[in-house]
Automatic annotation (TrEMBL):
Its cofactor is Co(2+); NAD(+); Zn(2+). This is 3-dehydroquinate synthase. Residues 62-174 form the 3-dehydroquinate synthase N-terminal domain. The keyword Nucleotidyltransferase does not apply.
Length: 355
């Protein structure tokens, strides 16, 4: 499959591209290699990666626990200390093998260690392949607040090996599917239509769907690398989705949601808001709601959940001058950024979702 040229780095596809990776490592004469994994990818993915890696450099493995709870500055300190103790220097290469938590935290650690060392992302989940590992956003959560601390800094390359997807449970695959649905809704109506009725989707061509999803995100990021304009389109579903994800993460009475599960709810809510603001037709809204609810189980919201979720919106990174900013749909395949929405309409969207 054709390489996608991103902003300063290539996104490579398939087994044969491990040869490209090996040549890159050799040609750049790195002093040593560190591989960051979590407990899952250490068990399920690392061996496959090492079977393709050809190098005479010293290799050190750093393992952290899996899960969003590990995506914090304390974990970064632990990794920085390990890098220091094991002799990492400015010519060290860090290879991040895992889902979005690993690529986010690994990119941040590399970008800040000794003012920056090179890193490569090997995403192993669908979510990381189509979203987290692409675009140069790296960082960690601040308490329960998503991605509050971080930098924009691109890897040397991203290598997509879809064989890793065979290690994923169904709920993790659905989590990644949410971002693919989003890419169609904000940018490409014909791409969205391939998912709007999953019974008509030929998943034998799923690699092609992944490739197109990455193309869409890359096209947007290339226009606006630092998120001053159109890149905000990628936040559709995320303003409310991140608040819901954070609330469920901190609340012991709630089941922790996967990122895509929260974003799926966020896309329905924000599609309703788009409809109420006259940007989306009733038929389009119903199409979106029907398609997403056919894939994702409903999330139960109690009356006393809504105010804490609203309170979390103030911490959204897109906000400017204290105003909450939404990216809303202007029809399927188009987006309108920097839209202010009042709390009454947000509450109305939750009521519609519950119905």
């Amino acid at each position: 499959m054709q390489t996608i040229q991103a902003n300063g780095y290539p996104v490579l596809f398939g087994e044969k591209e491990y040869e490209t990776l090996n040549a890159f490592i050799k040609n750049n004469n790195y002093s040593n290699l560190f591989i960051l994994v979590d407990s899952h990818t250490n068990e399920l993915c690392l061996l496959r990666f090492l079977s393709f890696l050809v190098t005479d450099k010293t290799i050190e493995i750093i393992e952290i626990e899996s899960g969003e709870a590990e995506k914090n500055i304390h974990t970064c300190v632990e990794i920085w200390n390990i890098l220091t103790e094991l002799g990492a220097d400015r010519k060290t290469l860090l290879i991040n093998i895992g889902g979005g938590v690993i690529t986010d935290i690994g990119g941040f650690v590399a970008s800040t260690f000794k003012r920056g060392i090179d890193f490569i992302n090997i995403p192993t989940t669908l979510l990381a392949m189509v979203d987290a590992s692409i675009g140069g956003k790296n960082g960690v959560d601040l308490g329960n607040l998503k991605n509050q601390i971080g930098v924009i800094n691109v890897p040397k390359m991203v290598l997509i090996d879809t064989e890793f997807l065979s290690t994923l449970p169904q709920n993790e695959m659905r989590s990644g599917l949410a971002e693919m649905l989003k890419h169609g809704l904000i940018f490409d109506a014909s791409y969205w239509s391939q998912f709007s009725d999953l019974s008509q989707t030929d998943f034998a061509d799923f690699d092609e769907l992944i490739h197109r999803s990455i193309e869409i995100k890359n096209e947007i990021v290339m226009q606006d690398p630092t998120e001053n304009g159109i890149r905000k389109a990628l936040n559709f579903g995320h303003t409310l989705g991140h608040a819901i994800e954070s609330y469920f993460l901190e609340n012991q009475n709630k089941k922790t949601l996967l990122h895509g599960e929260a974003i799926a709810v966020g896309m329905i809510l924000e599609s309703f808001i788009s409809r109420q603001k006259g940007l989306l037709s009733a038929a389009e809204y119903q199409e979106i709601k029907t398609a997403i609810t056919a894939i994702f189980d409903p999330i139960i919201f109690e009356e006393n959940d809504l105010q804490p979720i609203l309170d979390l919106l103030i911490h959204d990174k897109k906000n400017e001058y204290g105003k909450i900013q939404f990216a809303l749909l202007e029809g399927i395949g188009k987006i309108k950024i920097n839209q202010e929405v009042d709390n009454e309409l947000i509450i109305e969207s939750f009521k519609d979702y519950k119905n």
